[in-house]
Specification:
Glutaredoxin, alpha+beta, about 35% helix
């Protein structure tokens, strides 16, 4: 029952986000990407007048271990935009497709010091740094621009569900034993979510890469 409710909740969130993006795309030129996710409103005084300010959800501090066995925190993406997703190396369904698509993103922005990719395994018991290292090499990934992250599963699931708005959990009813979305999530330099894309399709991946270029333009003076 919980799994079904969660799936419905996640689907509703995705539909709302896609609707917001579609409405935004139809209202003027694509000069700036919207900020997505949960938000709060606070009242403060500016020049003696009360104004309502919007506080957007930010990705919180984190600490995981990468494919080289190094501890990786939020410091690794300071001053960078990044794309994140959730997967597991033994996934029999959408992960192989997602990784082929993400490889296109990696090649498009390879060597760009303002861009990173963070891929989180949702099967940390199996996906050790050694396993992730082999997996990365098989994809042709080298260096530190694309990080494959593992760590305590409760931390991975929490940041996926609460911060990245992405399904990430164990589910015995799911093929492979885990439930996760096929979303690629775009995060800006201030750790706000700026886009969600279908990482299982060419269309979604191409849209992501176009939006990454738009986002990078925002930071040019």
């Amino acid at each position: 029952m919980f799994g079904l409710q969660y799936k419905r909740h996640y689907s509703a969130v995705v539909v709302l986000l896609i609707t917001a993006i579609t409405l935004w795309s139809c209202n003027g030129e694509k000069k700036k990407l919207p900020i997505l996710g949960e938000r709060d409103w606070v009242t403060k005084k500016v020049d003696g007048k009360e104004v309502v300010d919007t506080i957007y959800n930010q990705i919180p501090p984190f600490s995981f271990t990468n494919q080289y066995g190094d501890t990786i925190t939020e410091k690794v993406v300071e001053g960078k935009i990044y794309v994140t997703d959730f997967f597991f190396t033994s996934c029999p369904t959408i992960c192989p497709v997602m990784k082929r698509q993400m490889t296109k993103v990696y090649k498009e922005f390879k060597g760009n010091p303002e861009v990173m990719i963070l891929s989180h395994t949702i099967d940390p018991e199996h996906d050790t740094p050694k396993v992730l290292n082999t997996f990365a090499k098989d994809l042709g990934v080298e260096g530190n621009q694309w990080q494959f992250l593992t760590g305590p599963k409760e931390n991975i699931y929490a940041i996926g569900q609460k911060s990245y708005l992405s399904a990430a959990q164990e589910d015995r009813t799911a093929e492979g034993g885990f439930l996760h979305s096929g979303a690629f999530i775009l995060i800006d330099k201030d750790k706000y979510i700026r886009g969600m894309y279908d990482g299982t399709t060419e269309e979604g991946t191409q849209k992501l890469m176009r939006d990454m270029k738009i986002l990078l333009e925002e930071y040019k003076k």
